[in-house]
């Protein structure tokens, strides 16, 4: 069996050897990739795709697929080892794997990755998606904010307020939760700005996923207001407005595993059979 480097065009001719969640980014051709195929006399049996992150020393495992009739023969492991060797020669120190699962599906993937030298996968993000109707009747959905708070469309943010929020980065909120990342994708009329006594102290940013689904992209309330359920009340207001409008019947919400209060909130209230529950796992392998 030969292990050959593949071009994006060659990958496009073998869609069954690329995970669906990786196919769009590969076709876009924006990222620098390493792709390797396992080939014998009958054609390609499997393929691996690695994305190279410039200047960070970390590469990302985007896809690894072995055709059903060729599994459990060590092909996946050989593909990973071949990719690891190429990454080492380019100076990469870590290979990151992220994968989505439902209902305990992580066990098989975790076992494979650990057999290939990865640390045990850890939960990274918990995702819930489904119809807004599944939330009707829940008490948290009626939460209201005190009179000192004001909720306005995100598009009402003034230039002075924008400057203030940019200057407050790192001290008031982590950079990863900046409301100005991917700003072009944000819906300014449905996203919400939270003010306290006239000053911005939080946001709930929404983005269209598809014609029927809205993504609750980023929610944050300044630290001094977090212990009084202000974030949940802001979230509830966003849901109420979407339900009243009726434009999007479905929503998607995610929370970082480290955000224990919101994770517990999600585990308690997002349990309807109509709600899809998924977890994104992360694992690393040292290449040094």
Keyphrases for this structure?
single chain; 288 residues; alpha+beta; Aminopeptidase; 2 domains
Q: What does the model show?
A:
The structure is a single chain. The chain has 288 residues and is an alpha+beta fold. The chain contains 7 helices and 12 strands. It folds into 2 domains: 2-92, Gcn5-related N-acetyltransferase (GNAT) (Aminopeptidase, 3-Layer(aba) Sandwich); 128-280, Aminopeptidase. It is 26% helix and 34% strand. It has a 12-stranded mixed sheet, with helices on both faces. The chain starts with a strand and ends with a strand. The mean pLDDT is 91. GO terms for molecular function: acyltransferase activity. Keywords: Acyltransferase, Transferase.
Task: Set down the secondary structure blueprint.
Blueprint: E1 2-5, H1 8-12, H2 20-28, E2 32-40, E3 43-52, E4 58-66, H3 75-89, E5 94-101, H4 106-115, E6 122-131, E7 149-153, H5 159-167, E8 192-196, E9 199-210, E10 213-221, H6 230-245, E11 250-256, H7 260-269, E12 276-286
Domain N-acetyltransferase: 1-146
GO molecular function: acyltransferase activity
Protein name: GNAT family N-acetyltransferase
Which H/E pattern describes the elements? EHHEEEHEHEEHEEEHEHE
Outline the low-pLDDT stretches: none
Q: Class of the largest domain, according to the CATH hierarchy?
A: Alpha Beta
* CATH homologous superfamily heading of the largest domain: Gcn5-related N-acetyltransferase (GNAT)
Radius of gyration: 22 Å
Q: On the 0-100 scale, what is the average pLDDT?
A: 91
- Structural classification: alpha+beta
Main beta-sheet strand count, sense and barrel state: 12 strands, mixed
Overall domain count: 2
| Helix percentage range | 25-40%
Distance between the termini: 27 Å
Organism: Paenibacillus aurantiacus
EC number: 2.3.1.-
GO molecular function: acyltransferase activity
Protein name: GNAT family N-acetyltransferase
């Amino acid at each position: 069996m030969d292990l050959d480097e593949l071009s994006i065009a060659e990958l496009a001719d073998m869609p069954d050897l690329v995970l669906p969640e990786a196919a769009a980014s590969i076709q876009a051709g924006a990222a620098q990739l390493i792709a390797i195929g396992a080939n014998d006399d009958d054609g390609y049996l499997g393929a691996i795709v690695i994305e190279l992150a410039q200047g960070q020393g970390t590469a990302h495992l985007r896809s690894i697929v072995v055709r059903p009739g060729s599994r459990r023969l060590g092909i996946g492991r050989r593909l990973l080892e071949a990719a690891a060797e190429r990454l080492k020669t380019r100076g990469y120190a870590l290979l990151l794997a992220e994968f989505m699962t439902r209902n305990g599906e992580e066990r098989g993937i975790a076992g494979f990755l650990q057999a290939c030298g990865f640390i045990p996968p850890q939960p990274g993000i918990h995702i819930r998606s489904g119809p807004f109707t599944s939330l009707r009747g829940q008490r948290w959905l009626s939460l209201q904010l005190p009179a000192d708070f004001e909720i306005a469309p995100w598009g009402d943010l003034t230039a002075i307020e924008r400057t203030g929020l940019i200057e407050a980065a790192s001290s008031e909120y982590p950079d990863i939760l900046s409301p100005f990342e991917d700003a072009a994708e944000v819906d300014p009329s449905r996203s919400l700005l939270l003010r306290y006594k006239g000053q911005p102290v939080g946001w709930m940013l929404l983005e269209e996923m598809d014609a029927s689904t809205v993504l609750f992209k980023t929610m944050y309330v300044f630290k001094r207001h977090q212990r009084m359920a202000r974030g949940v009340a802001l979230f509830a207001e966003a849901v109420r407005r979407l339900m009243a409008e009726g434009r999007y019947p479905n929503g998607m919400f995610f929370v970082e595993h480290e955000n224990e209060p919101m994770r517990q909130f999600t585990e308690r209230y997002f349990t309807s059979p109509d709600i899809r529950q998924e977890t994104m796992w992360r694992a690393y392998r040292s290449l040094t």
